[in-house]
Amino acid sequence: xxxxxxxxxxxxxxxxxxxxxxxxxxxxxxxxxxxxxxxxxxxxxxxxxxxxxxxxxxxxxxxxxxxxxxxxxxxxxxxxxxxxxxxxxxxxxxxxxxxxxxxxxxxxxxxxxxxxxxxxxxxxxxxxxxxxxxxxxxxxxxxxxxxxxxxxxxxxxxxxxxxxxxxxxxxxxxxxxxxxxxxxxxxxxxxxxxxxxxxxxxxxxxxxxxxxxxxxxxxxxxxxxxxxxxxxxxxxxxxxxxxxxxxxxxxxxxxxxxxxxxxxxxxxxxxxxxxxxxxxxxxxxxxxxxxxxxxxxxxxxxxxxxxxxxxxxxxxxxxxxxxxxxxxxxxxxxxxxxxxxxxxxxxxxxxxxxxxxxxxxxxxxxxxxxxxxxxxxxxxxxxxxxxxxxxxxxxxxxxxxxxxxxxxxxxxxxxxx
Length: 417
What we know:
Elements: E1 3-6, E2 16-22, E3 29-30, E4 35-40, E5 45-49, E6 54-59, E7 66-68, E8 72-77, H1 84-116, H2 144-153, H3 171-175, H4 201-216, E9 219-227, H5 229-241, H6 248-262, E10 268-270, E11 275-277, E12 283-285, E13 287-289, E14 292-294, E15 297-298, H7 306-321, E16 335-339, E17 358-372, E18 375-389, H8 395-410, H9 413-416
Parallel strand pairs: 12-16, 16-17
Antiparallel strand pairs: 1-8, 2-4, 2-7, 3-6, 4-5, 6-8, 9-18, 10-11, 12-15, 13-14, 17-18
Helix pairs in contact: 6-7, 6-8
């Protein structure tokens, strides 16, 4: 008996998957546990496993196609088995909505054609124009009859002024066209071809979640300038004796984790009729990859030392860049750190990573003159900006957290002990 292979739910937020690669072809034999396809989800590229042995009788979507959850991907059965009824059922259930839309479109187009009559152009007839027979995208608007006449007489339509509805070129414009009145064409310009990029599942999810965050969470921002001279010196000394190289971001993450223990309201989430104050401190670190932004999580960050945070953070970053992160490695965060300092960005604001209450945007360490004891001396300063959800965190609470963070980074010995 034939078995349907449907798009499985491979992550908690997945709504559809894109076929990244088929590992089998129609006619291939498979066993239970075989990986038949790789599917791009909103979080990572996952493997699709089959649980029945048999022959691949049909593969429906091509590589690159988006397949909704539960929709048929392939059929496994005995070689030569009749699966027409199964395919017909899948096709009818998947096309019911699109058939309805198509019928409405056909009715609308038919009505418009009858209304426009002979001068209706099925390609350009519904485009807005500029009053001179040219659509906004630069294409010439003309009736089919006028186009045929112009082609026969060798007339360039762009030289003809249209007198039809909305500047469309019609029959009488071709008949009355005087080549001697053709304006001199301006010097030609070189147009670069547009490129179309498919939106990945990850990018779709990023767009959806951050749009929801920005427009449903009342964001506000507070910035503080921190003296990083002590961190600069301490990090240098630690890296001279440590096998694991510690980055400035590792120090910031550790300082945030420690500060969150003192300010539990920052380590919270909005749940509609209640606020959850999280018992664990799990810090997500924003990592940019080609497809967008991922946020791997360092669990129980406050309980780990700098070396452990550095090692775990580097491992997660490498996995993110190689698209090897497991879904569970991107879940459960209670706070997020986003650092653009390595790109020379001095200051920016970040959109809160739901369901977190806050996200910290970290800028570059700047070498600037500062005044100490009445004298101007070289200094190393860093700006950080806390984005907060005003439903959870008030301005005073955010300011107190930032001042605790500042104190810890300006006296980093406590982070090492």
